[in-house]
Structure formats: structure tokens, C-alpha cells
Write a structure and sequence with these properties.
about 100 residues, alpha+beta, single chain, 1 helix
Length: about 100
């Protein structure tokens, strides 16, 4: 498990770290305090899994996490895990169809 610095919009939480909690295929479930988000790692870059910001950041530049994850992307654990499991299942299904 890696701890990464994620610059935030809120001054109160500005120095809080984000932690990679779980990996499933190309998707990563990350935690910051009691909030969770999902990002995707492809071709050595990290991407937001929602519409909008799709440029991505270098996977070795985790300090730039705020460039791809907005405050609205951080949700409670139950909601994040449901979305994470769904995204992981879609990826597995796609991989199985491609083989």
C-alpha cells in the first residue's frame, strides 16, 4: 500500500494523504481520510474514471492527484466500493471477451 500526497482545495485538509486501498485490473480505489475515489492506471498514467478530466497524470507524479480528482469525486466508502466493484467487473468481462 502506497501513501501519496494529494493537494486539496480545502485548507483544513490540505496536507492529508491519499492511500491506495485496493487494485482491481486497471482501477485503483484510493482513500483520503474517510472519503474514497476511484482512478484508473493505464500506460503508466493515472486517469479520473468520470467524464471531464481525461488528460491524466504521470503515474510517478502522484502528488498531482488533485489535477484528476475533484472534491465531488470523493464519496463515502460504500458508494465508492460499489462503483469500484462494478468497474472491476466490467474490465474483467471485457478482457474475457477479448481473449
Amino acid at each position: 500500500m502506497r501513501v501519496v500526497t494529494a493537494p486539496l482545495c480545502s485548507k483544513k485538509e490540505e496536507d492529508m494523504d491519499a492511500t491506495i486501498v485496493e487494485e482491481k485490473g486497471t482501477h485503483l480505489l484510493i482513500r483520503r481520510g474517510d472519503r474514497f475515489a476511484i482512478i484508473e492506471r493505464r500506460n503508466n498514467r493515472l486517469y479520473n474514471c468520470h467524464g471531464g478530466k481525461r488528460d491524466g497524470i504521470a503515474a510517478d507524479n502522484l502528488s498531482a492527484l488533485a489535477e484528476i480528482v475533484d472534491e465531488a469525486d470523493w464519496v463515502d466508502e460504500a458508494l465508492a466500493r460499489r462503483a469500484f466493484n462494478e468497474a472491476g467487473s466490467r474490465g474483467t468481462d471485457l478482457a474475457e471477451r477479448m481473449w
